[in-house]
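Hey all, sorry for the wall of text incoming. These are the two entities for the joint prediction.
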Amino acid sequence: MPISVGHSAAIIAVTALCTVLLRALPFLVFGGKKEVPRVVSDLGALLPSSIMAVLVVYCLRNIDFAAAGHFLPALLSCLLVAGLHVWKKNILLSIGLGTVCYMVLVQAVFV
Amino acid sequence: METIRKRRKDIGFAFRQSVPVMLGYIFLGIAFGLLLQNAGYNVIWAFFASLFIYAGSMEFVLVTLLSTGAGLLYTAVMTFFINGRHIFYGLSFVEKFKKMGRVYPYMVFSLTDETYSVLCGTKVPEGLDEDRVFFWISLLDQSYWILGSVIGALAGSYITFDSTGIDFSMTALFIVIAVEQWQDSKSHVPAILGVVCGILWLLLLGPDEFLLPTLCTCVLALLLMRGRLMPDAEKERR
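and here's what came out:
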């Protein structure tokens, strides 16, 4: 442990508090007795589709297109997951096979 | 007897919904526990860090903060920067969570990327108690994360299985939920908006800084297009 126990605990406490504060913010602002304003509930209904798309981009943010081995594993596995899910609609199958495919590609094919 | 059987059904359904997260959380948790152990922090630290912080990507940054002895102000700024996206997650669950009574604070606390995604994608069948299912999904997800980090801190260095690439299961989870939302929603504009904004800001700012501007742009654009995207809502109000 490079720093004192107190300093370590303080870093963890600050991180925890800030994270909770961020998650709690919409509830602190709109979570009162009054009904949530229409704008917010509309936004709450529309946002998940955008956020999920953004999260996919976020997961793939470090891909580079310099060499086939750098982007093909992720690209092929993403297509497999999406295709499987449209076809079979089985979450575990799509995620399981997609992950195995990705692991094989990065560990054994595009080394 | 009847209620016990019912509750078991709630938990069973919640468990099935949480399985996709289990794989990723346990392995990422192991990676985190192992890193923390290597930085000089034992399993007790791993347990409490995952209990109190519970934010996957942030906990990897935490290891750096600890091993470089970061100042508290810097720690706070980094946390706001990395976890800023979480502000938007609650917007979809304000009405839902605030009616959940005792577990309301925990539901807010445990709203990670993955739990948010699973909750967005969960359609609770009739006969089950939606509040209980939601609570169990959140609790199970966090237990996987804690379990993983404890295993990693205790035995991470003995695991010889090559888990390179297992973190793709999180990407796959988001893709699956995105596909389901695409099929369920009348308008594909929000999803396309997310992809386009994400790629544009990524090209402009690079991988470390594009996330918050992307989400802010999406929120602004959705607010501007709200009238057209939610026509039913507009009619209802009149």
